Hints:
The protein contains 27 helices and five strands. It is mainly alpha-helical and 524 residues long. Helix 5 runs antiparallel to helix 6, helix 11 runs antiparallel to helix 12 and helix 16 runs parallel beside helix 23.
Amino acid sequence: MRSERLWQRAQQYIADDQLNAAQLSLQSLLQRDPANTQAHMLLSSVALGRGQLREGCTYALNAAQHLPDDPEQIAVIAHCLFRIGETRAAHQCMAHTAVHTCQSGPTLNQLAHIHQLLGDHRQALDYMNKALAQGFDTAEFRYFRALQLQFNGHLPEAEAEMDKALDHGTTIGRASLALARMHRQTHDHNHLEMIAARLGKVEQGSEDHASLEFAHYKELDDLDRREEAWLALRRGNAIMHQRLPHDIEQERLLFQELLQFKIADRLPPGTTQKTIDGPTPVFILGMPRSGTTLLEQLLGNHSRIATPGELSDFPKQLRWITNRHGAGLLDSEMLQGLADIDFAQLGQRYLQQSQWRAADQPFYIDKLPANFMLAGLIHLALPQAPILHMVRDPMDLVYSNLRALFGDSHIYSYDLEALTRHTSRYRALMQAWHQAMPGVIHDVRYADLVSNPEATLRQALEYCRLKLEPACLDTVHAVRPVATLSSPQIREGIHQRGLGGWRRYAEQLAPARVILNQPADLHG
Length: 524
């Protein structure tokens, strides 16, 4: 009875925003019941609510030491651990017996999403298949199962599953866009009538509305109806920009502050740093839609390299080392804390949370395009880790990002000026990293990779202290999952269709050329 009163009291304190009192009640409860998982998780939430990331991690890890035989609660704990950067513990949670023996369709779906977050896409699809066998069937479930089928290379099945998602009548925007992107549309085979009908029914200004406009653009563009396509693309971006406004000035100040961080003053002397103990990460970074996925897949064909996908481990460990809880890659408060951090500890934390992803391979790829903002910090933390920078023509970058629809990520991409200025700032920052760390970052040009893949890939592998293997040049027969926007195109093989694609809309993109031909606006 005493424990129950403490639990109820803590919940009331939280409801009244009395976090200190809530913490004391929960700590008293844990003195009586040290294995109370819910109390540990609630204490973690209290700490995170105060912005105390490290303390929140400690309580969540305590909860993971006392997992209940309840797969639904395990999914909640694993999701929290992943969100705060305790990736290894989240992965270990998924090995619990209760997870493997779960028979609940909704819970199996939850577990599938945890596997998806962890990059275990084969496992994610397996759990979705188990959920389906248990009779679980919603529009959202069908949509996400279709994505997993697509990521795992089952494209015909993915297309059929998208149709089933649409049969439910919801998630129509995202599913319609995924269908449009599955392959190139033709006059004889397209979804224009279906899209037009749904545009008349969708909630105006919603993300589904925006998704349908992007789908409309894609199919019209495939049919070379460029004027109509551009108008649809403008409408889709305008909706998303209205929903997720981007502060151009705030971003400019963040880039400016990052450029003021003196990387050169912190670089370790000489080249005597010890080698990494265990698998070595290979970072691939650059702007989104720059070709990072293609490079990842080609390198991943190497017999000594694992490709766990887009990892958020380094930004999350950077948050841990600065003790700043939050969701973004970087913010001004974190930058202010960089002067006092132990970069060696940051590197060790990163390796602890990510090396399990390499399985039995001596190298593993960390492909998070936005890590270009952290390239200098990555080198300070992991001086022996190779950093590959994917370089693409800036106008192609602007055009490719403008037509992408990233959801609530990369929100600068929904406004042409914001996107172009972001691209200009990115180029200036990469130039600054090169100047501060000569020879540290290896540039891989997209045009070279698709025009002369063998020579370009050989150079990249030599930079990573590896030799080219014949299998590296094959993307068509690769069997590993590809969990990015370009997953259908990657399986088509290496091609040059993306070179100069922006010229199809040169007139509409003329304002971007003007901005890109000017110096980046980082000095006032």
